[in-house]
Amino acid sequence: MGITTATASQGDSESVTLLIPKESNPDKIPKDSFYLAYIIYFTLGAGYLLPWNAFITAVDYFTYLYPDASVDRVFGIVYMVVGLTSLLFIVAFAHKSNAYVRINVGYLLFLVALVEVPLMDVWYVKGRVGMYGGYYVTVAVVGLCGVADGLVQGGVVGNAGELPERYMQAVVAGTAASGVLVSVLRVLTKAIYPQDSHGLRQSANLYFIVSIAMMLLNIIFYNVAHKLPVIKYYNDLKSLAANEEKEEKGDLTGKLWRSTLWDIVGTVKWYGAGIMIIYIVTLSIFPGSVTEDVHSNTLKDWYPIILITGYNVFDLVGKSLTPLYLMENTKAAIGASFGRLLFLPLFYVCLHGPAFFRTEIPVTILTCLLGLTNGYFTSVLLILGPKTVSLQHAEIAGTVLVLYLVFGLAVGSVVSWFWVL
Asked: Where are the transmembrane segments (predicted)?
């Protein structure tokens, strides 16, 4: 099947660069009525990161319950390592599974994990300090969320990789919006509830209740998305391309699948390397150092909340900039991603350097820049990467990029421990 780069345009609904068949007619691409498909993919992106954001935003409560545990860093390592393992299995056996099933199973696992936390708090922990049985169960639930994240994130980003670039931008912007949502909830609950055991408990339960509601909404939205004409159009294009490849090469099993997979990995490896280094840098600093290692006599316990909110807001800004300007120079985007390594010595200076650099203004500016660059370059590389392969392989290319992303998260979570050495 001849695949070429073409421009699809339909009013204000589609104006993108996409690998589509030569014989397709861009004028017949269905319109995304009321931007419903965009809204759905934005919501899906928000949904799969909301559980993680709920756990790290409820860190005040978990730290209160389990004072002898480094909650932030343990949660981060468990979540990322389990998610990485999950994604490795998904990539290895993608040809034997269906993204539609994986995503729905992932959302159900999210639901089970999120429901367990408030139920355990009501029936077992009851706001009491030192109930470490609850801590170990919570860590296990974080691991279950890691499995769900691998299933959902890999599938949703993979699906978006098959679509015009605006839908990938919607997904990544949604991930940032989930962080902003939870941060706003954290600010409101801190302002409304007293910062005692009862108030922290109410706040944490609210985060999980909101996350449960979002998971239910995402299950509905995801199953509606496949019925939208614009999504069906691109799914049909993929099916045509896959069927013609099957006629030409046979079933993608065994040696042929491994060869195809390595070709895809080889094509997107530098995009993946850029994404990986972005998240190694980010997770080595945020949220661990931001919540545990910096202090303010003026802002006191509001300080980490303000920093987390600033990071999340600027991450959303960065992920929303690509519709205005998409850096199409791949070498420049990847180079800028590696350039973010400069944040490590800069944050080190903010922790151990001259007194001025340890004050609120330099730390806040650096945290916001960390979020802005994280958001923008993640969006750029995730948009461009899947477009470098043929349409029928765009889903697995997107999933491979998520594998790089989660590997970066896992390594960054481990590196974050070096700040306490």
From this structure: 34-54, 74-93, 105-124, 136-158, 170-193, 205-225, 268-290, 302-326, 338-357, 363-384, 396-420
CA angle 90, 94, 100 (to 5 degrees): 90
- Determine, yes or no, domain membership for 8: no
Classify residue 391: in a domain, yes or no: yes
Do residues 391 and 20 touch, judged by C-beta distance below 8 A? Answer: yes
pLDDT of residue 139: 94
Whole-number Å distance between alpha carbons of 48 and 107: 8
**3-state secondary structure (DSSP) of residue 29:** coil
End-to-end CA distance of the chain: 56
Paired strand residues for 8: 16
Burial class for 187, CB neighbours closer than 10 Å (0-12, 13-18, 19+): middle
Amino acid at 262: W
Q: How many domains does the chain have?
A: 1
* Interval 400-415: pLDDT, tens: 999 999 889 888 878 8
**Distance between alpha carbon 361 and the CA centroid of its chain, in Å?**
28
pTM over 0.85: yes
Q: Which residue has the tokens 């279950």?
A: 144
